Amino acid sequence: MKLEKITNDPAKPKRRYNDACGMALGLELLGDRWALFIVRELMFGPRRFNDLRADLPGISANVLTQRLTELEARGILVRRKLPPPANVTAYELTPWGYEAEPIVQELGRWAVRSPDHDPTLPISGVSILLSFRTMIDRSRIGDFRVRAGFRFGDDEYVADVDEAGITVMRGDPETGEIVFEGAPEGLAAFVYNGVDPDALAAEGLLAIRGDMATARRFADLFVLPPKVGMEPSAR
Description:
CATH superfamily of the largest domain: SCP2 sterol-binding domain
CATH architecture of the largest domain: 2-Layer Sandwich
Strand order of the largest sheet: 5-4-3-6-7
Oligomer: single chain
Number of helices: 10
Helix content: 25-40%
Number of domains: 2
Distance between the termini: 61 Å
Order of helices and strands: HHHHEEHHHEEEEHHEH
CATH topology of the largest domain: Nonspecific Lipid-transfer Protein, Chain A
Largest sheet: 5 strands, mixed
Strand content: 15-25%
């Protein structure tokens, strides 16, 4: 009797809920541990394997390889060669993969209302900038217009604020009127916790160049939602 060879198909989620709800399929596609984090880290364009692992310090190389293979097989990301001088393999979301951004944003907006949310924990550069796209209060923008630059190690970004909100992209931070350089958690401490920038600079967490009043007004645009009460819902 010839034994049939059984192989694992990475395109097929390991977990099946047998439920026609789109949410069930969504969890089958992105519900594996670290999958949604990888999608989050690719929201501003392609990244190399080592870059992803550096910003997801809790993930092993084997698990990262497995998740990337699964997400590629499911059509959520693609693998491609970066042009010279980089000339290395990178991972990039497909157009459908980029459509997952509202999922990341709204899950984050909902979860930070929990009293258990700790904004002092480590955060990646992509995550803090994505939080700006999520938490910006457009009613506070008024006539404020600014380009801000961000440098987190080798990762560089620029953000433009206008009446429509904030746009973030890869770019030379030196083109910004204000430049934030240091650790993403230092930027989070300044923007969301109001920590004094001199104290952050003294600890090597954040350096701000440019007009400080402009930097403070920029930080004032981003507001975390109020914490939810612990009382049961009236529904």
